[in-house]
Amino acid sequence: MTGFDTAGAAEINAGTQDTSATESTRNTPEQAKSSDSWFHPDALDLNIYGLAYHPDRETVHRKNLDNQVNYGLGLHYELTNSELGATFTEAGAYYDSGRHWAKFLVLGYQFKFGEHWRAGGAVAAVHSETYNKGVTFVGMFPLLTYDLGPVKLNAVYFPKVANYNQVAAFGFYLSVPLGKWLE
């Protein structure tokens, strides 16, 4: 064989190596779910949006921003989770206090306090006809979570900020872990 033929034979032999691995060396179904995967079902929650409370009752009635049943859905995904806290992202939509659909994308962090409490904040890109005269904007919001296990209770505060948000509001919603349903 020439040098060229030897290189070609080596490539052929590399592709025909013995692949008769025993059961003990093969991956189990659990191992096949690679820990290197970017998606982890246990990190995914379904957010169910529902309630809002506006402390300035007179202004919300006058400006027709008094819808306090803000139904909607979103997804919450934990990017990192450590003893100290968790980094997360969310995307969703809800029927806002001005009776328009608000759509948003969030990146946030929450510190852990004990076994059940988390407190932190998020940066959100938001679009709704109700906020900022219908122009998409970016804002920061504090967020508090209490983890009950099968469901998480969340509270978020939207401060009054000029044209971005004409009245302050507290939002309340549930997060349902989806991991056990996706496995």
Question: What are the key terms here?
Answer:
eight-stranded antiparallel beta barrel, Porin, 8 strands, disordered N terminus, elongated
Give the secondary structure arrangement, pairings included.
Elements: H1 3-15, H2 29-32, E1 44-53, H3 57-62, E2 69-81, E3 85-95, E4 101-113, E5 117-127, E6 137-147, E7 152-158, E8 169-177, H4 179-182
Antiparallel strand pairs: 1-2, 1-8, 2-3, 3-4, 4-5, 5-6, 6-7, 7-8
- Residues in β-strands, percent: over 45%
Structural class: mainly beta
Order of helices and strands: HHEHEEEEEEEH
Count of distinct structural domains: 1
Using the alpha-carbon principal axes, give the shape.
elongated
Q: Which fold name corresponds to the CATH topology?
A: Porin
Identify the strand order in the major beta sheet: 1-2-3-4-5-6-7-8
> Average pLDDT across residues?
83
| Cα end-to-end separation | 54 Å
